[in-house]
Amino acid sequence: MRQLLFTLTLFISAPLFAATEAPEELKLLSENPVAGMEQGNLSGLAWCGDALWAVSDREDGRVYRLNTDVSPWQAEAETFVAPPLPDNMRPWGMKMRGWITGLIRGGDLDFEGISCDSAGNRYLLSEAHAGVLKMPPAGEPEWLTLPKTFMRQARASGLLLHFNAMLEGIAIDPAGERMWLAAERERRGLLALYGKSNNWRCQGPCVLQSESGVVVAPKLGAGPVPKDYSDLSFYQEKLFTLERQAHQICRRELETGAVERCWSFAEAALTDARRYDSKYGMAEALWIDPEGAWLGLDTGAHTRADGEDRSIVWRFAAPKGGWEQAE
């Protein structure tokens, strides 16, 4: 009976899905392989000051300034030493799995995102430790003190329950007083924190959104996979989510995370030459600006159909009418 009801639900819903308008395709302007990242695995991008910066989830003590004046782009390392981690209330079992994984593959801190404010502070998101490392222009890095309710509320909402499906994206407003974090998948969600200096809190609920569901990745030939977020970007009082499996970027409302409009990059990403032997998307990093979007690919150990095996940064043009266009 349960299977029958499920089948009937899909049948009834099919016309609704079929009538949904496909998102506008973004135009690819350039494709830029990145050399010089020792372990590869480009997992976060941010335009800070006069340069594009990147992080790798396999390297703990460095961020990369991307030299875009050469071809291929050259990643130039800036090294640092992170201080000891604060207690973030993760379960003991998850802490141990993160520690063991870091020993085996490298990258104990597992940096999955980078953002920056107008004062030049950079913020690195550690997935494995559910923490945010602040790197000021001058002075030593420090871990932000997140409120104790943060992890508790997230887990109560069904977020951050699964190893390697924790925090995957970070966005900071220019004033450095508002921060949004993205929970990756199973369930995916958006969280908001407010602060000044190192005094961060939840203003109302920490969790703006928590949702389950699946998506069929276009042209990948795989079955349904969990909906996900793989990065965030703040632009013009809107939040932009990178949705790797759906191959799209969506504009969302800051206070609720409600989707307003989406744009697809599937047409450019899934040409025969750019295909990878994987049922998962590779887009891991996002930065939005007035002229367009920077998208970073974490290709890991995969080689593309055309033989390219380096991390890649794509440049897409902003949609006609700009990112602010109405629904």
UniProtKB/TrEMBL annotation:
Please name the GO terms that the record assigns under molecular function: isomerase activity
Q: Which InterPro entries match?
A: Phytase-like_dom (IPR027372)
Q: Which Pfam families match?
A: Phytase-like (PF13449)
Annotated SUPFAM superfamilies: NHL repeat
Give the record's keywords alphabetically.
Isomerase, Signal
Q: Which residues form the signal peptide?
A: 1-18
Location of the Phytase-like domain? 40-187
Q: What is this protein called?
A: DNA topoisomerase IV
Organism, as annotated:
Pseudomonas marincola
